[in-house]
Design a protein that fits this description.
179 residues; mainly alpha; two-stranded antiparallel sheet; 5 helices; elongated; transmembrane; UPF0716 protein FxsA
């Protein structure tokens, strides 16, 4: 006798819901624009925004990749340049796909002047998902009693150099305790 096993139903994720509502909103806006200016002009506007998105993606993407390459050659952390490259890729994808709401969001991600808004929203969303102990600054209390002497220049991440870097022993403390 064969038995069947059914996996428990998974709840719909917020991302899938947001994508579905976004697609529905795109269709509604597209129909409204087509009824306002006509289907031919709407198709031309869609093609124009896709072409504009491709051009902006090429220009801003080249700048972002150049910045990443320069930081790699100088052995510096990618920092904000890596986030900008990701936002530019997302913005280019949103602008190349048909739809006016996606074009607007893509334009926010592609233009350097407006890129701060999506960056802040994404950072806020990521911080909200992190556990409390991983948020904010991490305080370290040193257990070393003697002074540490080091190089004149501050330490910079990069390839290993001759000689050891000084190590400061310590422990991570959950909260800052001022004496």
């Amino acid at each position: 006798m064969a038995t069947s096993h059914t996996a428990p139903r998974r709840r719909s994720s917020g991302l899938r819901t947001a994508i579905g509502l976004g697609a529905l909103a795109e269709v509604v806006v597209y129909v409204l624009v087509a009824s306002w200016i006509g289907l031919g002009w709407t198709i031309l506007a869609t093609l124009a925004t896709s072409a504009l998105g491709g051009a902006l993606l090429a220009r801003q993407g080249t700048k972002a990749l150049g910045e990443l390459r320069m930081r790699a050659e100088e052995h510096r952390a990618p920092g904000r340049a890596l986030g900008d490259a990701g936002l530019i890729a997302l913005g280019g994808l949103l602008m190349v796909l048909p739809g006016f709401l996606g074009d607007l969001l893509g334009l926010l991600c592609l233009l350097p002047v407006t890129r701060g808004l999506p960056r802040a929203l994404i950072a806020r969303g990521l911080l909200r998902r992190l556990p409390d102990r991983l948020r904010g600054p991490v305080y370290v209390r040193s257990t070393r009693t003697e002074t540490v002497t080091g190089p004149d220049q501050p330490f910079r991440a990069g390839p290993a150099t001759r000689g050891a870097h000084p190590v400061i022993e310590g422990e991570v403390v959950p909260e800052r305790t001022d004496p």
